[in-house]
């Protein structure tokens, strides 16, 4: 293998037009390589094409063209092997209401051809915190428990790659913590994790590498650290010793007075130095009681990259 868990080349998806609408180009030629062993974030606004991409990986949506390789297996050449390498926790809560969690896992294991002797239903139910609901009807489960069950189902065939589509959208804090601690645990055991989220702090915290897609196109892919480094805007926040009458000014500086009386000076580190900023503050006759700097976060990068259109 190439060191990549997933390799996608020129992936396109056009949905046939529904009533009153024309065909929809949901993916417009995506190239994407996802490193083995990573926690990989797929970010993008609503409608960007994230679920379409993930559902193609899962074999739930048929691509229009392009190449998809999962764990080294071409989806068109080795559909069974490529499907066996991946487990997907979908965005939709689509569960059969008449199966208990244990039965749902057994059925899923059967679908993937996991022999009875190798099934781990109890262990997986324990992992997701559903042991005490193992024999309850799915329709009596809360939304959070259903999500736990969807995660459990994605794990029955011990896939090398786990994909989670918006796993924490609208879930409570406890479930979110359970999900992230499981993701970390599984990743430490060697599983490659791919997740979509629109919570940027979450991607920042969880992901080693991130791809941003917008309108069916990839607009960026990099390590989380490099993506954050792309925006070199820094903000220096000055708390003056007494109320400042004059605001500092200088080339390449954007100056704001904050409600708490602090003065925020935003500048590009490549063009303006911190010393220039401090000199401008001094020239304005301001004595400094306290100073701190703020860095750009993923939100800034994301807005910059998805602003066009
Ligand atoms: P995301 O998960 O990033 O929100 P989706 O992949 O769900 O985006 O959707 C991408 C685009 O494709 C959207 O414009 C959406 O309306 C459209 N789309 C998704 N599923 C279908 C479908 N089954 N039929 C027609 N259009 C679809
Ligand atoms: Mg989606």
UniProtKB/TrEMBL annotation:
<feature type="domain" description="ABC transporter">
    <location>
        <begin position="6"/>
        <end position="240"/>
    </location>
</feature>
<dbReference type="Pfam" id="PF00005">
    <property type="entry name" value="ABC_tran"/>
</dbReference>
<dbReference type="InterPro" id="IPR003593">
    <property type="entry name" value="AAA+_ATPase"/>
</dbReference>
<protein>
    <submittedName>
        <fullName>ABC-2 type transport system ATP-binding protein</fullName>
    </submittedName>
</protein>
<dbReference type="InterPro" id="IPR050763">
    <property type="entry name" value="ABC_transporter_ATP-binding"/>
</dbReference>
<dbReference type="InterPro" id="IPR017871">
    <property type="entry name" value="ABC_transporter-like_CS"/>
</dbReference>
<keyword id="KW-0547">Nucleotide-binding</keyword>
<keyword id="KW-0067">ATP-binding</keyword>
<dbReference type="InterPro" id="IPR027417">
    <property type="entry name" value="P-loop_NTPase"/>
</dbReference>
<dbReference type="GO" id="GO:0016887">
    <property type="term" value="F:ATP hydrolysis activity"/>
</dbReference>
<keyword id="KW-0813">Transport</keyword>
<dbReference type="InterPro" id="IPR003439">
    <property type="entry name" value="ABC_transporter-like_ATP-bd"/>
</dbReference>
<dbReference type="GO" id="GO:0005524">
    <property type="term" value="F:ATP binding"/>
</dbReference>
